[in-house]
UniProtKB/TrEMBL annotation:
Keyword entries, A-Z: Membrane, Transmembrane, Transmembrane helix
Pfam families tied to this protein: DUF6350
Species whose genome carries this gene: freshwater metagenome
Keyword Ribonucleoprotein attached: no
Protein name: Unannotated protein
Tagged with keyword Mitochondrion: no
Transmembrane segments: 12-34, 70-92, 112-131, 137-155, 167-188, 200-219, 226-248, 268-288, 295-313, 333-352
InterPro entries xrefs: DUF6350 (IPR045931)
Length: 357
C-alpha cells in the first residue's frame, strides 16, 4: 500500500508538471517580451498557474487595475481540458507499469491517483491567488477529480460502459461532430473575415501562434453554440444579446477571429434546421428500441445530463457586466434540444409499435 501511495503521488505531480511547465515557459517568454506591471518574476509563475487552472475549467474573479473593474471570467475553452486529460492518462499508465504486481484493485489506484492530483490542483489554485486575479479554488476539487478520474478510466483494465451511457455518448459524439464539421466549413468560407479580425489585433508572430492555439481550443464551444443555433435556441455574445434564426439582438462583438463566422442578421428560414435534433431523436430510438423501451428511457436520461453538461462548459462570463452572458443558455438549449429529440423519439416509437401490432 505504501508503494502504491508513493508512486501515485509522484506520478500525479508529474501529470501536473507535464502541462504546467510548458505553460510556465510560454508565460516567461511573454513576460520577457512584453514586461509586466510590477516587473517581478512571480507574475509569469502566477500567469502559468492561471492558464493551467483555466485548462481545468476553473473560473476566476478579476479586479483589473488601474480602474479596478471587477468581473468574472468563466467562459473558458473546454477544448483545453484535453491537455490535462492526456497528461494524466500518460502518467497514470506509467504509474501502472511501475506498480506491476503491487496492487490487486486497479480502481483503488485510480482513486488514490485522482485524489492526489486533485489535492495538488486545489493547492495551486489556492496559493496562486493575487489581489487582481483569484481562482475559484473551491471548484478545483470538483473539476480536477472528475477530469482525473475519467482520464484514468481509459487506462489499464477499462470499465465496460453501461449500454445507456454508451448510447448517450454516441449521440453526443454525433451532435458535437456535426457542429465541428459545420464550424470548419464556415471557417473556410469566412476566412477573409477571420483574417481581417486577426490583422486588427496585430498579435505579432509569437502572439499569433498563441491566438491560433486559443481559437483551436475554443472550437468545441463554437460547435455547441452552432448546434444550439440549429436547435433554434441560439446563443449570446454579451448581456441582453441573442443570435438565433428568429431573433438577432447584438451590440458590439469583441474582436476575436473565431467570431468571424457569426451570422450578421436573422435567418427565419433556417429554423428548419431544428429537424436535425428531431433526426437525433429518431436515431436515439433506432439504436435503443430493439432492446426495449426501458433502454430508450435510460439512454434519454443520460443524454439530457450530457447535453446540460456541455451547455454549462460552453457558456460563461467574460470579465465585464456587458459580457456577462456568452455562449449558450443552459436551460434554453437544454429545453429546446430535449423537446425536439423527444418529438423524434416519440414519433419513431409510435410508428414502431403500430408496425409490430
Amino acid at each position: 500500500m505504501q508503494r502504491v501511495l508513493s508512486v501515485s503521488l509522484s506520478h500525479a505531480i508529474r501529470g501536473v508538471a507535464l502541462v504546467l511547465l510548458p505553460f510556465a515557459f510560454i508565460a516567461l517568454v511573454a513576460w520577457a517580451t512584453a514586461g509586466s506591471a510590477t516587473g517581478t518574476t512571480t507574475d509569469p509563475i502566477r500567469g502559468a498557474s492561471w492558464i493551467w487552472l483555466g485548462a481545468h475549467h476553473i473560473p476566476f474573479s478579476l479586479a483589473l487595475p488601474p480602474t479596478g473593474q471587477a468581473g468574472f471570467f468563466s467562459f473558458l475553452p473546454w477544448g483545453a481540458i484535453a491537455l490535462p486529460f492526456f497528461a494524466i492518462r500518460s502518467t497514470f499508465n506509467r504509474a501502472l507499469d511501475r506498480l506491476q504486481g503491487d496492487f490487486h484493485d486497479i480502481n483503488g489506484v485510480r482513486t488514490i491517483y485522482s485524489l492526489f492530483y486533485t489535492i495538488v490542483v486545489t493547492l495551486i489554485a489556492f496559493v496562486s491567488a493575487s489581489p487582481t486575479v483569484t481562482p475559484k479554488w473551491y471548484l478545483a476539487p470538483i473539476f480536477a477529480f472528475l477530469i482525473s478520474l475519467i482520464a484514468t478510466l481509459t487506462c489499464g483494465d477499462k470499465l465496460a460502459l453501461a449500454q445507456p451511457v454508451l448510447v448517450a455518448s454516441r449521440i453526443i459524439a454525433v451532435i458535437l461532430g456535426t457542429g465541428l464539421i459545420i464550424v470548419g466549413v464556415l471557417t473556410f468560407t469566412q476566412f477573409s473575415v477571420i483574417k481581417n479580425l486577426t490583422v486588427t489585433l496585430q498579435p505579432g508572430i509569437f502572439g499569433g501562434v498563441l491566438l491560433l492555439l486559443l481559437n483551436i481550443l475554443y472550437l468545441p464551444n463554437a460547435a455547441v453554440a452552432l448546434v444550439s443555433y440549429l436547435a433554434g435556441s441560439g446563443f449570446a455574445i454579451g448581456s441582453g444579446t441573442l443570435i438565433s434564426p428568429m431573433w438577432y439582438h447584438s451590440d458590439q462583438i469583441p474582436v476575436f477571429p473565431l467570431f468571424g463566422i457569426l451570422p450578421t442578421s436573422r435567418h427565419p428560414l433556417f429554423v428548419v434546421a431544428s429537424l436535425f435534433f428531431v433526426a437525433i431523436g429518431i436515431l436515439l430510438a433506432y439504436w435503443t428500441l430493439q432492446s426495449g423501451v426501458q433502454l430508450l428511457l435510460q439512454s434519454s436520461i443520460f443524454l439530457v445530463v450530457m447535453l446540460l453538461l456541455i451547455a454549462y462548459l460552453s457558456s460563461g462570463s467574460l470579465m465585464t457586466d456587458e459580457m456577462g452572458a456568452v455562449g449558450v443558455s443552459i436551460w434554453k438549449f437544454g429545453f429546446t434540444a430535449v423537446l425536439e429529440i423527444a418529438i423524434g423519439a416519440l414519433a419513431t416509437t409510435m410508428i414502431a409499435s403500430r408496425t409490430r401490432s
